[in-house]
């Protein structure tokens, strides 16, 4: 399930375990952080939606790995 929206600045980091900043998410996907931001902003590749915490985007690690697995099952050219 994709998550989106804002998270208040006072939210406990323990609630956010399993989430990583854009730089780390980009490393998981083997792309540049700006590429990941661009893909997300443009709605490309059916990426999982990040959540916003202040000015930062946070990505659900489990959703990123599920997205990678779903891409493995798609025919070339999709």
TrEMBL record:
Name all Helix-turn-helix domain ranges: 23-71
Which InterPro entries does its entry note?
A: DNA-bd_dom_put_sf (IPR009061), HTH_17 (IPR041657), WH-like_DNA-bd_sf (IPR036388)
Q: Which Pfam families match?
A: HTH_17
**Chain coiled-coil ranges:** none
Record SUPFAM superfamilies? Putative DNA-binding domain
Q: Which Gene3D superfamilies match?
A: Winged helix-like DNA-binding domain superfamily/Winged helix DNA-binding domain
Query: Out of the domains of life, which is the source?
Result: Bacteria
The name this protein goes by in its record: Helix-turn-helix domain-containing protein
Taxonomic source organism? Mycobacteroides chelonae
Lineage of the organism: Bacteria, Bacillati, Actinomycetota, Actinomycetes, Mycobacteriales
